[in-house]
Structure formats: C-alpha cells, structure tokens
Amino acid sequence: MIEMTVAGIALDATNRRTPIVLLKDGSGRRALPIWIGDNEARAILMALEHQRAARPMTHDLMANILAAWEMTLERIVIHSLQDNTYYAVLTIRQGDLCKEIDARPSDAIALALRCDSPIWVMEAVVADASIPVDRDADEQERIAFRQFLDSIRPQDFSQQGRGIEDSSAS
C-alpha cells in the first residue's frame, strides 16, 4: 500500500467540469485523479480549508459519532478500481475491536480529513490509474518565468513607440 495525501480539488474541463480529487504520493511523483460529485468536492474542500458549517454536515456528523463512541478511523484504503469505479474501506477501531466498512472513496477521503487519518491506496490501483507528475517541467516553467521577470526593464512599459497616445497632452 502507498500512503497518499490530498493535493486538492480540480475541475475536469473536458467532462462537464466534473470535480476531481487529486491524491499525491509521498514522493510527489505520482498523482491519482478520482472523479467525484459536487457535494463530496465541497465536503473535501471544507475540510482542506478547515471550514465548518453552521450545523454539522454529513461527514462532520460521522466524525462526531466516532468521537462520541470513542472510535477512531485508523485509515482509509482505496483498494480497487473496477469499470472506472474506485472502491474503498474505512478501518474503524473501538478498543480491541476493529472493523472494515465499505465506503465510496470520496466519502472516505472527506471523513479521513476530518479525523486526521491516513489515506492508503493499493499499489495495483496506483499502478493502473496514477498519472506521473512532471516536477522537472514545473521547475523549468518556474525558472523560465523568473528569467522573464528578471529581463523586464522599466522602458518596456513606456508608452512611446507603441501607438498609445497620451490624452493629457491634448
């Protein structure tokens, strides 16, 4: 299993702006995109931004129930991908008793963020569905942009020679 963290939420521009939760491995070299619903995206964003609704949302309620019954969410595991659908389980512990409960990955992630629990993904799922993160390309873009900024001179912003007339001179 590979421990992953939530890198953020994005919108799939090619698929009717469907939300995607993006998980990244510890090395930052692989990302796992999981398409989710709007409500789940909001729940995950609220947890990432440490926001609270005026009344408990579903995932807050679940976290409150776990705490009230002295249970802990030990981890979530995204264990398989079948027909473009991810499957996950919650591992919940109460004392010596430990149970695994089937869950949608989006709900499991939203709850894990609220319970500060680790997110694990089976290696086969990462191998099948992850995308490489080109950190070198990101660094090259940052270097090129920094070089561009460093090359700018004040006269580059001069209005002379650009066909812009100074209306105050009239």
From TrEMBL:
InterPro entries associated with the record: BFN_sf, Bi_nuclease_dom
Highest taxon of the lineage: Bacteria
GO molecular function per UniProt: nuclease activity
Signal peptide: none
Ranges of residues in domain BFN: 1-133
A Pfam match: BFN_dom
Name this polypeptide is given: BFN domain-containing protein
Species assigned in the record: Parathermosynechococcus lividus PCC 6715
